[in-house]
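If your schedule permits, I should be very grateful for your opinion on a structural question. Thank you for your consideration; the sequence and its tokens are set out here:

===
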Amino acid sequence: QPPSNASHSFLVESAASKTVHRRASTIEAKPADPCGSLPIDVDTHDGGTLPLDGDESGQLAAATSEVDDRSGTDSSECVDQLTRSVVTKRGVEPERGGTGGEECRPIVDWGLHVDDRNRRHRRPGGSPRLDVVTMMGRRQRSTQVNDRSTQHVLVVGGGTMGAGIAQSLVQIGCPVIVREATPEAAEAALDRVANGLNRAHRKAADPASLVAADLARLDVTADLPETEPELIIEAVPERVDLKAKVLAELAEHYPSTLLATNTSSLSINDLAAHVAGPQRFIGMHFFNPVPVSSLVELVVGEATDEATVEASRQWVERLDKTAIVVNDSPGFATSRLGLALGLEAIRMVEQEVASAEDIDRGMELGYKHPMGPLRLTDLVGLDVRLGIAEHLAATLGPRFEPPDLLRQMVADGKLGKKSGQGFYSWI
């Protein structure tokens, strides 16, 4: 170990890429402070970003843990369903976000010591032309890039989860770059974040200015930025081969950055085998919809060091969320418990203990769950739950063996809301 005075604090010079695309508002806004001091207006349940009490938001997060990119369900589709029972006393959430003098990162010596000659901190050689898309859809041309003189966060994957993570970060004032596989996918990610911000700010006195200020902190690209970010969150679809490939590329390109994967079930230890410097690698299991949920499950692998856990915890606090820390194990804590409840509810229907409606109503009224396990299964997708159950049965034993009813419904194409029929009719 090098001496402590050689520690690196992860300050970043700037970031740009030849295929960066930037969303701008037709309303001009002044550049934001590094962490911003804008109030975050949180919409009521019809807008998809709901200020919940601690217990309520925790229940919501737990109830939506599996509704991720694999389910094919957009987060906005299920927010109303999940929160209708708790929307009784809603105003505007208090201000959050940093003051202008704060930095957009945890103040922590993360403990990695690297040779500066090997770092990838480089200022771009020029200012590429950007395709600026206005909020009204008109395209303009610009020759300036966002000034990245402060550190930024790189989110890799701009689907439902990645876009939600990026939205949450820009709303607390962090510069964010979202990297996608193609320019077209990057544009789609941009639209997802912009739509989420529109929902978040629609109740504000001047929503256009708030959206414009948040979007001014966001870039999307189909290339890896040259400068090293403060934090990388990988949020590509839940496939081991894809995540392993992406993580290996990121670890090589950015040799000293805190690297997190957003996964609801994949083994952190298995993924760490593809990461150079696995001590800086951790699971950050965000819950869908990310801007609403208050929970992040930090999953610690065998090689993850304590400095990584502490830095990750501080990032979660910065997002105004709560972290729980679990050791790497199949299904982690939340997905494992949520699936166990869902499978038992399916067995009860199979054994004609009670109807799906009465089972759900019992959990909602008796245990204060915002949604019953069978309706949630319909939203997640029966095929998704079957896949997770088969994985956990193979790794943890027969207590997670999928019920015959679940297998039969999937075989019949009854996948839940996305197919129109599951335990409930959605037509």
